[in-house]
Design brief:
Blueprint (H helix, E strand, L loop, with lengths): L15 H9 L6 H13 L2 H29 L1 H4 L12 H32 L11 H26 L2 H6 L20 H22 L4 H18 L18 H11 L10 H6 L4 H10 L1
Helix pairs in contact: 1-2, 2-3, 3-5, 3-9, 5-8, 6-8, 6-9
């Protein structure tokens, strides 16, 4: 598919810089919008441009967000007091094994799906043309995506702890009883596909129903979801962690209990499904049941 920018005022040029300067001449666009237009004009193929942008962003965000947790594990004298399972830290070999496996999953499983996202997006009526949507629209849709994904994740994750599904699919993710940041996407290919649909599915369905979802909203949503998943597997709980500010947020201590006790705390972001369904993990869950 040719780029929709080929018919606009911005014509193909040799470099991103030249295209960006041309785009900046349109004073009604922000810097991000100018970069966006330059990117699509440079590649001249919208499917390729979307795929490259999404995959590069995915890799930079994933491994970039893991770096602080790798540093924390390398400096136990400073960060040990914040470690949830303080006697269990990943070795260098653990982290390197995890990196190699995740890179294989990213390139073999996720890259083809990311490239296919653009045609799926167009089929479902998502937009990627300028201007970007307003911030309040982006925020409202992302809150909806978090709630829908959390519900989907809870029930699918709970199903994966049923014997046959656990042994054939989910067991790989539980290789580490004390998770660390890199293990957020350490999972079987089938689990990657099934849980990944919980991330890309809500924007596609909303776009199909309303026709008012923009690719920029999807990219922001995927970024926040990645950060949430990595932080939940970090193994650290700080005084400034989000779960101490937002009472219904799960956080690392919530998901760490899932890995430690292997059952319960199935939700991805929030606590409400586990509380309502009586699946809170560990001593916290037993205390809740005694009170009930």
């Amino acid at each position: 598919m040719e780029s929709f920018f080929n018919s606009s005022a911005v014509q193909p040029a040799a470099t991103y810089a030249q295209l960006f300067e041309i785009a900046k001449q349109q004073h009604n666009m922000s810097t991000m919008e100018s970069l966006w237009q330059a990117h699509y004009a440079y590649w001249g193929n919208d499917t390729l441009a979307t795929g490259i942008m999404a995959f590069v962003a995915h890799e930079l965000i994933y491994f970039g967000r893991c770096i602080p947790w790798i540093i924390a594990d390398a400096l136990p004298i400073i960060f040990r007091k914040y470690k949830i399972q303080e006697k269990k830290s990943p070795s260098v070999n653990d982290q390197w094994t995890c990196i190699k496996y995740i890179l294989a999953i990213h390139f073999i499983i996720e890259l083809p799906l990311i490239v296919l996202f653009h045609p799926m997006m167009e089929l479902c009526g998502l937009s990627y043309t300028l201007p970007f949507p307003q911030l309040r629209t982006i925020a409202a849709q992302i809150v909806t995506f978090f709630l829908v994904e959390d519900t989907y994740h809870y029930w699918l994750h709970r199903a994966m702890h049923w014997g046959p599904l656990y042994r054939s699919i989910h067991r790989i993710h539980h290789q580490y009883a004390a998770p660390f940041g890199l293990t957020a996407e350490y999972a079987s290919p089938w689990e990657t596909l099934l849980l990944g649909f919980g991330t890309i599915g809500p924007p596609l369905v909303m776009g199909l129903i309303t026709g008012e979802v923009h690719l920029m909203t999807v990219l922001v949503w995927m970024t926040l979801r990645q950060i949430q998943a990595i932080d939940a597997h970090s193994g650290y709980d700080f005084p400034w962690s989000l779960r101490r500010i937002v009472p219904f947020w799960g956080g690392a201590d919530w998901h760490d209990d899932h890995h430690r006790y292997f059952v319960g705390n199935y939700s991805s972001s929030f606590k409400h499904w586990d509380v309502l369904m009586g699946t809170v993990a560990g001593p916290r869950g037993k205390a809740t049941k005694r009170k009930a």
